[in-house]
Each structure stands twice: as structure tokens, then as C-alpha cells.
Amino acid sequence: MAIIVLKAWYLDSVLSASQVQQRAPDLRLSRTGLLKTAMRADFLDDVEQVKASLWWQRYLEGELVEFYIEGSGAYSISNLDLISREIYFNKRATLNMTEPVIYFCGQSDYPDSSATLHRALQAVVETLNRNHGPVVPLQLQGSLPAEAETPLIDAALIRKLKHALLVVADVTPVQVNGRGRPLPSPQVCLELGYALQSKRPEQLLLVQLPRDGIEGSFPFEVEGSSFLKIADPQHLSDQLGAEIARQLQRNRVISL
Fold this sequence. Notes:
Elements: E1 5-10, H1 17-20, E2 27-34, E3 38-43, H2 47-51, H3 54-60, E4 66-69, E5 73-81, E6 86-91, E7 99-105, H4 111-131, E8 139-143, H5 155-163, E9 164-170, E10 175-176, E11 182-183, H6 186-198, E12 204-208, E13 226-229, H7 236-250
Parallel strand pairs: 7-8, 7-9, 9-12, 12-13
Antiparallel strand pairs: 1-2, 1-4, 2-3, 3-6, 4-5, 5-6, 10-11
Helix pairs in contact: 4-7, 5-6
């Protein structure tokens, strides 16, 4: 019996199922079983190639790994064995899609830094959309609350954090503690906490601007995240743009 080769694309970016099929497949499969809500298949790619793939690394880390399989729809991996080359898939009713959004966590305790950072992000998004032509235009969303505003953590905010492509947080210190250590806005820390529940650490970008009279860095580290400590605000747009472009290229939203 002839082997029917099915192409499969890893769904790791903002591309829709129709758009993702325009690029080279990430996996080639030979289907060996099909049920109403599941599929069994052998992968035909080289084992070393699979081990080197981004989706395999994320699978080992326990993340939900989704593929669009040619002619069959969206499936997530439920089990995989490299030795036997078998993969078991579960049918997905809906895709766990990421939106083409850069979400900004601003703060009202020291509004000057958030206003500066928000303007720089607007310029970066406009430049990326104009110069790199992402398959889906990028948008900037997020919180830039007024000083008297009480931050609202609701279902809409949590959804935005969950589906954002990248979360940028203003961790410029707002005060120092009794030991002289700089402290970021509790509002920003709260939003970061919600973001960490649904984002990979590399999807978080922490940015600290200089502030007169307060020295030191963010009081804790988020392993795997990016941290930008800006010494000169004149270079903010360049440094921010370079880091965001690197992240978007990694997610195959743009090509440099």
C-alpha cells in the first residue's frame, strides 16, 4: 500500500490555518489511524531534525503543541515516541490562536516613564508595520491609566494578556523600600503575574527607564524573559525596536 504523506504546520504564531499553509511544512506524517476526535500517525522526518525543532522543545516543556494537518484540521499532540516514530493527536475544536498584539503594562505611580515608553512602542509598531510588512498588521494595546484611576483587573484584561503575542511591562521603580531597593509598580507586577500564567517567559519584555534619585534594578528576575535597562532614553526606540523585532522574527511574524 502506498504511503500517503500529509503535511503538518506548527501553529505557533498569529497566522491563520490558511496563511500557515503558504510556508514550508514543519512535519510530514503518514496517518495510521483516525477516530472521531483523535488521529495516530508516524512522522517521516529525520529524528534529529525533530529534536532540533522549536515545537519539540516546547512539547518537552509541557506546553500545548498544535498542528494544522493537511486535509484534517487542527490537532494537538497528546503523546509522541521518537523511537517508534508514533504521534498521537487530539482533535481541536478551536485553535489556541495568538493575536497580533503587543500588550503594554503601564503604571500610574510614575506616569512619565509609561508615557515615554508608550510613545516609543507606538513608533516601533508603526515602523515594523511599514518596513517589514508582517502577514498580519501589529497592534498596540494595553493599560496607560490616569493617575487617579483605580486599576481594574477583569476578564477582558486577562483575555488580552493571554492572547497577546508579546507583553511589554514598564518596571521603572516608583519608590524604594526600607533597605533602599527600588520597587516597581504593584499594578504592573499584578498584570505580569497574570501574564506569566499564560505566556512563555520569552514573550515578556521588561523595560526599566532611568529615574533621578533611584538606583538599582528590578528586584527579581523572570527566568527566560528579556530585560532592557535603558541608560539613555534617547536610545529607547532603537533598543526597544531591535528587541521586539528579534522576538517577532523568532515567532515568524516578520523576517529581517
